[in-house]
Specification:
Length: about 450
């Protein structure tokens, strides 16, 4: 009874209180250029990880897939800890480890009890500095990756987005898939993987991030002890200067009438990470919203496009996206529909884009801003999400942007800003289109291009 009384007396923090009471992100840069960042909280667990500014965008046609291959091998043993010894040590901590590779980032992180933070830092440093890359493990993982590539071919949404990058950034590094090609995976050697690690795993391109019940001073001390020997790149190659990935208005169509549903994505060139237009475009995307047939609400949803989809049975689902990279991005929408509904769904979706450019209302913007605020706070639920947020901010913006600043940026958006920014990126622009499945009804590119503007008398 006493416990229940105590619980009832605890008041929920308001949104404003949440923004003001967020723990400070502390950042320390070591002599070799490694950035150590943490956010302390009263948690019995912590997430510690290394984020590296390296991914498929840093690869070429010959070694595309090397980063993904290295990620697969990272936790398979080090020179100091053979595979079985590494796994036993992690299991003895009761820890959970994971990693991923994207087009511009590679991450290795471990979630464990807060008291084990120093050991976690040591394990991560061993992975980054001394990954064994044994020939036996390489051959074993080669088979695993080839099997994954076959399975990925059945995920039509992922296939569509890979095609979208391939056509939007054709001839550039952003056109590469993260996983690489089957031919590359078959022929990559240990020397190729070692070369990739030696080239890109440099201290100035790394962030050691942590969130949870940890002390920043203890984290820095552990980093100095275990990461001080991570190679320092020469100043000119600390962050490689990448050629601008020029956006191309074009299309890729992979027609297969044996498939039951069509996957279609349409995008224009969006801004890079640090561009302030991103906040306005995210508000615009929130106005359009998303939809799936499993959603409740029917035609009473706030999204006009969702209402049309329900009333006219236009699609099974749709979503908007604003995918940013260091200097460019993709802003668009993706939908899944029956073969005979493609034209109607595309007409309505492009019509919504034109409405964003010409007649967005203040009430729509207010709703979209509230949606963004909720999503912003929700994504910081848990030490792993916070840890990833810290690291990605440091890599993309050079600093951790506080929630209060994000809220101020969102609050400053109004309907005129949405109309102006959407006109800048959408109106009368050549889109990139990727379509997979029974897409006979998808109109000719020139017809779709003509729907990117309205003739107003």
């Amino acid at each position: 009874a006493a416990f229940l009384t105590l619980t009832r007396k605890r008041g929920a923090a308001t949104y404003a209180q949440t923004l003001q009471n967020m723990p400070e992100t502390q950042v320390t840069t070591l002599e070799n250029g490694l950035r150590v960042a943490s956010e302390e909280s009263r948690q019995p667990t912590c997430t510690v990880g290394v984020w590296i500014g390296a991914g498929s965008r840093y690869e070429n046609a010959k070694n595309n897939g090397a980063g993904f291959f290295v990620e697969h091998l990272a936790f398979k043993g080090t020179k100091k800890r053979p595979g079985s010894a590494f796994e036993k040590e992690v299991e003895s901590l009761g820890a959970h480890l994971n990693g991923y590779t994207s087009r511009e980032q590679t991450a290795f992180y471990i979630k464990a009890l807060s008291k084990d933070m120093p050991k976690v830092v040591e394990l991560l440093a061993d992975v980054v500095r001394n990954c064994a890359l044994e020939d036996s493990q390489i051959e074993k993982e080669r088979g695993v990756i080839l099997q994954e590539l076959k399975e990925m071919d059945s995920n039509l949404m992922d296939v569509t987005f890979d095609y979208l990058h391939a056509t939007a950034f054709q001839g550039t590094a952003l056109a590469h898939t993260v996983e690489g090609t089957t031919e590359n995976i078959k022929r990559l050697t240990r020397a190729d993987l070692v070369s990739y690690v030696d080239t890109h795993f440099k201290a100035p391109r790394m962030v050691l991030a942590a969130a949870g019940g940890i002390s920043h001073k203890e984290l820095v001390d552990a980093a100095k002890q275990h990461f001080s020997e991570v190679p320092v790149a020469y100043k000119e190659d600390a962050v490689p200067i990448l050629p601008h990935c020029r956006f191309t208005g074009s299309e890729i169509r992979a027609r297969d009438d044996a498939l039951p549903l069509a996957h279609i994505a349409l995008a224009v060139e969006g801004p890079g990470w640090a561009d302030p237009d991103n906040v306005v475009l995210n508000v615009a995307n929130a106005i359009i919203g998303c939809y799936d047939r499993t959603f409740g609400g029917g035609k009473n949803q706030s999204s006009r496009l969702a209402t049309l989809a329900v009333e006219h049975n236009l699609c099974h689902s749709f979503q908007t996206f604003n995918t940013s990279y260091s200097d460019t991005g993709l802003f668009g929408f993706h939908f899944v529909s029956d073969p005979l509904s493609i034209d109607d769904m595309m007409f309505c979706a492009q019509g919504e884009w034109m409405r964003l450019c010409t007649s967005t209302t203040e009430s729509e913007v207010t709703r979209a801003k509230n949606y963004l605020r909720n999503a912003m706070v929700a994504q910081l639920d848990g030490t792993t999400r916070v840890c990833e947020n810290i690291a990605s901010h440091l890599l993309n913006y050079g600093r951790r942007i506080p929630l209060e600043e994000w809220d101020a940026r969102i609050s400053a958006v109004d309907a005129r800003m949405v109309r102006d920014v959407c006109s800048k990126y959408i109106y009368d622009k050549c889109p990139a289109i990727a379509a997979v499945g029974p897409i006979e009804q998808l109109l000719d590119y020139n017809r779709l291009r003509s729907a990117m503007y309205w003739i107003r008398l």
